Structures are given as structure tokens and as C-alpha cells.
Amino acid sequence: MGCISNLRLKLAAKQMYEGKLVAYPTEAVWGLGCDPLNPRAISDLLDLKGRTATKGFILIAADFGQIEPFVDIASEQLKGKLLACWPGPVTWIVPMNPQTPVWLRGNHDTIAVRVTAHPVASALCKAFGGAIVSTSANLSGLPPARTQLKIRCYFPGGKLNFLPGAIGGLDRPTAIFDALSGTKLR
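User: That's the sequence. What structure does it adopt?
Assistant: C-alpha cells below.
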């Protein structure tokens, strides 16, 4: 986990519980996260990024149990396929639990999920006690931020809370695969 303190993690988790947005490092870029079950936080995130709600979001977690409530994976073979890559920098599009809120899935009947190996992102999920929304820290259509300074340039209004740390070693955002077909989408 490096130099991140438990106090900072608890504060970031508390901010998410309060419906606030948190910027944090991920495997390749800075992410913006919030409580996935808070529609007001999701709305604030969409407004901040200038993003359409139809795209849906990625959920990241510290372990499979944190994303399990959002997915519908009856096949042990499919679950094994996911777990073989996790924790790690692979995002999977999977069948969703029918109870998953529309604001997370957009216009899809699937949901994007990842069990992250990034120490700060994983620690944030553990401190929060569940999966969190993870979207790149950028205005829609612009390159994802790789530094806190770039985030502050994109979002100068001070509406973000920061969890310090370093991004991981990837040059590009994590790969995304369709879990049923195996097709690489990004």
C-alpha cells in the first residue's frame, strides 16, 4: 500500500459514503470514484465529466465478493475465467444481476467489473467495504489524467477529494473483454 495512511483511506471512504467524488490512482491513469448505490453521486459524476448515462460504469473491487451482488455468474467455468485474471488489470463485461441499478449499467444488460491489484485502489475498496465506481479522471472525450495536476486542470472547481498515490505501470487503461465471447473491446 506504500505511504497511504489508514486515516486517509478512512476519510476517502467516508467521503464516498457522504456522496462525494474521490480521485484515486489506478493501474494506468487516475480514476474518479463514488458509491455505486448513490444515484446523486452518480449524477454528480456524470455532470462533472460531461458524460452520458447510457454508457454505464466500471465497478472495481478488492475481491470477487465485493462485485458479486452486481453480477449474475451462474457458470463456475465463467467465474474461473475471471478469477484466473484477478486481481489484475483486466476488466470483464459480464451478465449483471437484474437488481443492478440502471445508473450503473447504462443501456446494457451487462456490467463492467474488475478486481484490482492496484494497492491504493484496492485499499480504497476495502476501506469503503465494497465495490466502487471507477471511471477515468477526464472530461468526456479528452485523454485520461495521469497526474493530479492534470485532474486539477480538467476540474478546477475543487469538487473532488484526492486519495494520494502513484498510478501503476500500465501505459494505457486496462483491457476490457466480453466474458461470454472472449472478444477484446479495448
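The chain has seven helices and eight strands.
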